[in-house]
């Protein structure tokens, strides 16, 4: 691996790593907005259906966000795999550091698989909380 290629991979890894970590902050913001919507719904006596739909939309939005974060993690792993290769194995175009988006586009799942991936990420416990408790509060108090 040439020094330039390795440096580009390291820069790409660092950028993706920073983005991956910042996604947690945005996921927390989505959770806080859902909590605020629930509190506002209780304060202003919105119908339970409206409050449930708003919280459900934010829950699924976080699932989409977590799916994007998961893809970033996969890209980071691919970069780490490339960094582990010998220089002789780094000659093909598919291992150049600037082809991340091209590689993702080539491997993009079908719409059904994409929706299934979003739903799977929405059901992870770290995403599921606080949406189910908030929905429970809305059903009980509205």
What descriptive keywords fit this protein?
single chain, 142 residues, mainly alpha, 6 helices, 79% helix
Structural commentary:
The protein is mainly α and 142 residues long. The chain has 6 helices and no strands. Helix 1 packs antiparallel against helix 2, helix 2 packs across helix 4 and helix 2 runs antiparallel to helix 6. The longest helix is centred in the N-terminal third of the chain and has 41 residues. It starts with a helix and ends with a helix.
Q: How is the topology of this model organized?
A:
Elements (H helix, E strand, L loop, with lengths): L2 H41 L4 H37 L15 H7 L4 H12 L2 H4 L2 H11 L1
Helix pairs in contact: 1-2, 1-6, 2-4, 2-6
Count of distinct structural domains: 1
Chain-averaged pLDDT:
86
Largest sheet: none
Compute the separation of the termini in Å: 62 Å
Radius of gyration: 20 Å
| Count of beta strands | 0
Count of helices?
Answer: 6
Q: What share of residues is helical? A: over 70%
Spans where pLDDT lies below 50 across 5 or more residues: none
Range of strand content: under 5%
Q: What's the overall geometry? A: elongated
Helix-strand string = HHHHHH
Decide which structural class fits the backbone: mainly alpha
Summarize the structure.
The chain has 142 residues and is mainly alpha-helical. The protein contains 6 helices and no strands.
């Amino acid at each position: 691996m040439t020094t330039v290629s390795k440096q580009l991979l390291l820069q790409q890894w660092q950028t993706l790593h920073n983005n991956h970590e910042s996604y947690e902050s945005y996921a927390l913001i989505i959770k806080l907005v859902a909590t605020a919507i629930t509190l506002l719904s209780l304060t202003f006596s919105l119908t339970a259906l409206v409050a449930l739909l708003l919280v459900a939309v934010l829950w699924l939005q976080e699932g989409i966000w977590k799916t994007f974060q998961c893809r970033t993690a996969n890209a980071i792993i691919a970069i780490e795999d490339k960094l582990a290769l010998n220089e002789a194995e780094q000659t093909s175009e598919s291992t150049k550091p600037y082809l991340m988006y091209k590689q993702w586009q080539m491997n993009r799942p079908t719409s059904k698989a994409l929706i299934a991936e979003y739903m799977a990420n929405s059901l992870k416990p770290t995403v599921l909380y606080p949406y189910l408790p908030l929905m429970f509060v809305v059903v009980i108090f509205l």
